[in-house]
Amino acid sequence: MEGLKTAFYFLAVLSVLVIVHEWGHFIVAKLCRMRVEDFSLFFGKVIYRIGERNGTVYNIRAIPLGGFVKIAGMEPEDLHPAAPVLPCREAPGRRKAEKVLHGLNPDALHAINTDNISDRVRQAVLDAIGPDSLLTETGRQELQTLLHSTGINSDEHRYIETILGARPQPPDPDGYNQKPIWQRAAVIFAGPFMSLMFGYALFCVMGFTTGLPMPDFENPTNVVERVSPDKPGARAGLRQGDRIIEINGRPITQGRQMIETIHRSAGVPLTLKVQRGAETLTLNVVPEPGEIEDEQGGRVVKKRVGLIGFIPRPVVEWKRFGVADSIATGTRLIYVQLTETPKILFSKRVKDNVGGPVAIVSKVHEDSQEGPRHVLFTAALLSVSLCIFNLLPIPVLDGGHLMLLFIEFVRRRKLSTREVYAAQMLGLSIIGALFLLVTYNDIARILFRAH
């Protein structure tokens, strides 16, 4: 039952976040009078066709791992519709020549037995295609001459006719690639922006309805929030999430009690009893001398204490606000996430603070046991994170599309189909590598905590 509840919450959160993000692209594309062909929740085969309105088909698909909006003229092949012609067969020491021809219908080649096309005819077609992937006038005339010669077979005759019949289609005026660069950039940016605004709206609404979790840093717990590397605690084996329940045989029930005991023990060996999941472990540690700032009589003074190098988790209380205070608190939460997340991404803490699908499912599972408001708060955080992640300058992400548009703006000409494909393949490689690394880190983190 718990598994079903987690799956329901996960799919609900994922679906809403995807719909909101894609709706941002969708609505701005419509405002810019672009032709939107498909708006789908999830990927794969269509399992339910919701309907069609104003030229857009709305679908629910089979694989519940996201969703998409299909805008006409946005795919690389839509920039210059083309298909590859037959290359010459490979010969020792010679690279295979490959060219594409605008307006060529690849389906027309399926009816031809290409094994019967000689290299002479293949080469003639290759020579007839200019650098703009169109038939040159000279090349067209030579193919016409070859077509009426007696030295070609029926398959070669049909092949040459197919090549000569290629007719580049005029660009779609309502297509994405025919719109001004600022409109295309607006469509791309609208997705991350909508994700950001949705997270912000959730924070603000939760503030005066369910309340928001507010950490009380003056009231710590006895749970470890973060362990500093190369410090006594890390060397002793202390980990994030550990609960210190005993020090030198004395039960610990409050965070303040734990901190005071450690502070009084500079250079003194301590035996910590730690609860880690279902296990209870014993760790030996010697606090090293250090200094902290303390307020005494209205003055801030430095105090010498014992430290083992960890930050305790603060007590978190759900607090409701008035409407104005909810907006102010939501604004602060957005500001913190927008400023701190990039710092974490480019710091040594990235391994411990960034998660992938496994970590998200694990977090949603924990939240589902706590209640719907916890799931809502995580959804808000994920929505803002989705905005930040999508703006990374990696091709195939929204930030990568914006980067390619900037390159087009600087060069003052559109990228070719081959250049766009090359950028996308690079982006897919980067995303694939990041996915594997993050997933491995998620699994290792779970196993690490379990043991």
> Which percent band covers the strand fraction?
15-25%
Net shape: elongated
Taking all Cα atoms into account, the compactness measure Rg is 31 Å
Can you give the mean pLDDT?
86
Number of helices: 15
Structural domain count: 3
Question: How much helical structure, as a percent, in the residues?
Answer: 40-55%
Q: Please tally the β strands and state the result.
A: 12
Biggest sheet descriptor: 4 strands, antiparallel
How far the N terminus sits from the C terminus, by CA atoms, comes to 26 Å
Question: Unreliable runs, pLDDT <50, ≥5 residues?
Answer: none
What is the SS-derived class? Answer: alpha+beta
Biggest sheet strand order reads 7-6-8-9
Strand/helix succession: HEEHEEHHHHHEHEEHEEEEEHHHHHH
Q: Secondary-structure blueprint of this entry?
A:
Layout: H1 2-31, E1 36-53, E2 56-71, H2 76-79, E3 82-84, E4 100-102, H3 106-109, H4 119-128, H5 137-147, H6 154-164, H7 181-208, E5 212-227, H8 232-236, E6 243-247, E7 250-251, H9 255-263, E8 270-276, E9 279-285, E10 288-296, E11 299-307, E12 310-319, H10 323-345, H11 350-353, H12 357-370, H13 372-390, H14 398-411, H15 417-450
Antiparallel strand pairs: 1-2, 3-4, 5-12, 6-7, 6-8, 8-9, 10-11
